[in-house]
Amino acid sequence: MEAHQLVWDVVCLAALSAMEFGCRLLYRRRPPILRVIAETVADFWARLRGFAAMGLPPRGWGEVPLVHPFLAASEAGEVIFCGPPDVDSPPASP
């Protein structure tokens, strides 16, 4: 599998999971929409950060370029989180 496909698979799954989290939040508690948006975005970044923190890069991950906007590979092939450093993310929801 191509390295770019691997990273985009992870990013897309994080985005879909975060959107599901946002939908549940919206319909369960009915908070203000701007709060739902902020929490959904934070959940997305937390999921990507959590993936990087696992330290278990998939096979072929070493080919992901350092310039990728979300996740990259170090020279040693480790996963690097490339998200905005100022995001205060809660832990990813189950």
UniProtKB/TrEMBL annotation:
Record-annotated membrane-spanning stretches: 6-27
Keywords, ordered alphabetically: Membrane, Transmembrane, Transmembrane helix
Protein name in the entry: Uncharacterized protein
Protein's organism: Tetrabaena socialis
